[in-house]
UniProtKB/TrEMBL annotation:
Keywords: Membrane, Transmembrane, Transmembrane helix. It holds the Pfam family DUF202. InterPro entries: DUF202 (IPR003807). The chain crosses the membrane at residues 51-70, 91-109. It is a multi-pass membrane protein. The lineage of its organism: Bacteria, Bacillati, Actinomycetota, Actinomycetes, Kitasatosporales. Residues 14-77 form the DUF202 domain. Residues 1-20 are annotated as: Disordered. Its main location: membrane. It is found in: Endomembrane system. This is DUF202 domain-containing protein. GO terms for cellular component: endomembrane system. The keyword Transmembrane helix applies. The keyword Membrane applies. It comes from Streptomyces phaeolivaceus.
Length: 110
């Protein structure tokens, strides 16, 4: 299927699928974080709750909420005709939340 011809004088961005793929990637990332948070809570409560387990599970939940907020903000930004670039601060925060979720999950497993 060929894309529709551009209107004369149109200065909008290319209507390709890249923004949709990016939105889907953010959604997959938040879904993965949700699974990690749920498994962390399950692991923390398995065999009786402990202070360390509940603390790690609560930290996982907070990290997931932070990642969810970042992803939602980025998904909203992608709806603009000219979305702004992802700032280094936002990218760094998303990476740190993801790594911290993995570390909390590993702590609960071992």
């Amino acid at each position: 299927m060929t894309p529709p011809p551009a209107r004369p004088g149109a200065t909008g961005r290319d209507p390709g699928l890249q923004p949709e793929r990016t939105r889907l990637a953010w959604r997959r990332t938040t879904l993965t974080g949700a699974v990690i948070a749920v498994l962390a809570a399950k692991s923390a409560l398995h065999g009786g709750p402990s202070v360390a387990g509940v603390t790690a599970a609560a930290l996982c939940a907070m990290l997931w909420l932070a990642l969810l907020a970042l992803a939602h903000r980025r998904i909203r930004a992608l709806t603009a005709s000219r979305p702004s670039a992802l700032t280094p601060r936002t990218a760094t925060t998303a990476v740190l939340c993801t790594v911290a979720l993995a570390v909390c999950g590993a702590v609960l497993v071992f």
